[in-house]
Design brief:
Layout lengths: L9 H16 L4 H8 L3 H13 L3 E3 L5 E3 L10 H22 L2 E8 L2 E8 L14 E3 L4 H7 L4 H8 L1 H4 L9 H14 L2 E4 L6 E9 L5 E10 L8 H21 L5
Helix pairs in contact: 1-3, 2-3, 4-9
Length: 257
Amino acid sequence: MKNPPGYPVRSVDHALQLAVMLQVEGPLGVGEAARRLGVAPSTAHRLLAVLVYRDFAVRRADHTYAAGPVLSLGAGSPSHTALLRAVAMPHLAALVERVQESANLQILAGDHVRFLGSVECARALRVGDREGMVFPAHLASGGKVLLADLPPERLDALYGADRWAGRLERRPGLGPLRRELRNVRERGFAINAGRTEPGVTAVGRAVRDAGGRARAAVSVSMPTSRFSRDRLPELVAALSVTARDIEAELRDSPAAT
């Protein structure tokens, strides 16, 4: 039996209760949230707004709230994720030294991609730390290389009309998405030219497990003013070295077995 701490922070406790409700029970409205927590509707609204801001919840078109992309990570293995990040961070730092641009580690979380780690470059004009952020997978460079590795039925399930019913985001067309992901598979890398953030361009490549499946992605991101197609060979080569080194260290890690 768990005992509550002797120093409860009510707003934190309420926010965590709401997150669990959304994950386990499904969507709910402000009134129902207020009733369940025993708080005023205005308080429930503020708590839900914070969960939306931190991607633990999403606000739907019918004004109810549903579990957000962060909560979809609950089905993954925390130990594997922690190992992946611990192994990858030094290699991200080495990647930054090679290309003098910021670097990131990402994993797929449903139809979003989550940034597990970031290393900023030292240049005055640079892309900042993205750690902890969540973006639509079909827009982000790392998300695209991960989606490109999914079986067709899994992709259909993620972007089917039923899954997107009631969501405020515009659902990508499956036909154009399949064509784009086919190109990503053929090239081995993906580009995000300002689709998640204006003025930012990123290039991503998959990190694969021993069985050859894409389990994570590494990317470099830079101000669009500094990107050109002439840089692609350099960037892709550096990403390939980084992904290869992370893959090798993960295979050799006792914790990975």
